[in-house]
Design goal:
Strand 4 and strand 5 form a beta hairpin. 34% of the residues lie in helices and 19% in strands. The protein has one domain: Chitobiase, domain 2, CATH 3.30.379.10. By secondary structure, the chain is of the alpha/beta class. It has a 6-stranded mixed beta sheet with strand order 2-1-3-5-4-8. Strands 6-7 form a two-stranded antiparallel ribbon.
Length: 217
C-alpha cells in the first residue's frame, strides 16, 4: 500500500508541476514587432531560469489579472521611464508610455534577477536559477543618460551569408544584425534619444557658433 501511495503521489506531482510553473507574458493588441519580440525573448529566458516551467506569450485586449504584463501608460513621463509592479506571487506588470521604456524596464528587471549577457549568443548568457519571476514591490526604472547608444560602424548591410529579411523592423539587418541589436537592448545600451545617420541638416552657422562656445578650437 505504501508503494502504491508513493506512486500515486509521484504521478500527481508530475502532472501538477507544469501547471504550477506555467506563466504567460502578455503584450497589448496592436503592439509593435519590437515589443512582441521582447515578450518572446523574456518568455524563453524565464523558461530557462525556472526549472520545469512553461512560459507562453499572448496578446491581450482586456488587462490580465495575473502573469507578466506589458502596459502602455501615457501618464508616465519620459520615453525611457518604466514602472514595474508586482504582488510577489502571481502578477508582474511593466508600465511605460512607449516601447523604449517597456524594453528598458523589462531588461533592467531581468538584470536584477541575475541575467547577464556578455556577447550576442546563448553561449555568453548567464541564466540564474529561479523559482519565480515575481519580486514583491514597486520599482521605477529611468536611464540616467539621454544619449547612451552606440552603433555598428558603417551600419550593418545585407550580405550573402546572412540574407534574412525577417528583421526589417530592427536596428540592423539579418540574423547577425538582429542578434547585435538584441544584445544592445538586453544590456540597456539604448537611450532616451539617438543620432540617426549623418546630420548635415544641423550643421549650420548657429550650431557651429554654439559649439565654439563650449569647445577649445
Amino acid at each position: 500500500m505504501a508503494f502504491i501511495r508513493c506512486c500515486i503521489i509521484a504521478v500527481v506531482w508530475v502532472f501538477c508541476m507544469p501547471n504550477t510553473n506555467a506563466q504567460t507574458v502578455y503584450y497589448p493588441v496592436g503592439a509593435s514587432q519590437l515589443l512582441k519580440t521582447t515578450a518572446a525573448d523574456v518568455a524563453q529566458l524565464l523558461q530557462k531560469a525556472i526549472l520545469g516551467s512553461q512560459v507562453n506569450v499572448q496578446q491581450y485586449t482586456t488587462l490580465p489579472s495575473n502573469g507578466i504584463v506589458f502596459i502602455y501608460d501615457s501618464i508616465i513621463k519620459g520615453n525611457q521611464t518604466c514602472i514595474a509592479e508586482s504582488n510577489g506571487t502571481t502578477f508582474l506588470k511593466f508600465k511605460a508610455p512607449e516601447d523604449n521604456g517597456l524594453v528598458y524596464g523589462v531588461y533592467e528587471y531581468l538584470n536584477k534577477l541575475g541575467f547577464k549577457f556578455y556577447q550576442p549568443g546563448s553561449i555568453w548568457e548567464i541564466i540564474p536559477n529561479l523559482t519565480s519571476p515575481y519580486k514583491n514591490g514597486n520599482t521605477s526604472f529611468t536611464n540616467k543618460y539621454k544619449y547612451k547608444t552606440w552603433f555598428i560602424s558603417g551600419g550593418h548591410n545585407r550580405w550573402i551569408m546572412d540574407n534574412n529579411a525577417s528583421y526589417g523592423w530592427d536596428n540592423y539587418y539579418g540574423d547577425n544584425g538582429h542578434n547585435w541589436a538584441l544584445y544592445q537592448r538586453r544590456n540597456s545600451m539604448l537611450s532616451e534619444y539617438k543620432f540617426t545617420g549623418h546630420r548635415g541638416d544641423i550643421m549650420n552657422a548657429n550650431y557651429i557658433a554654439a559649439l565654439k562656445t563650449i569647445l577649445v578650437i
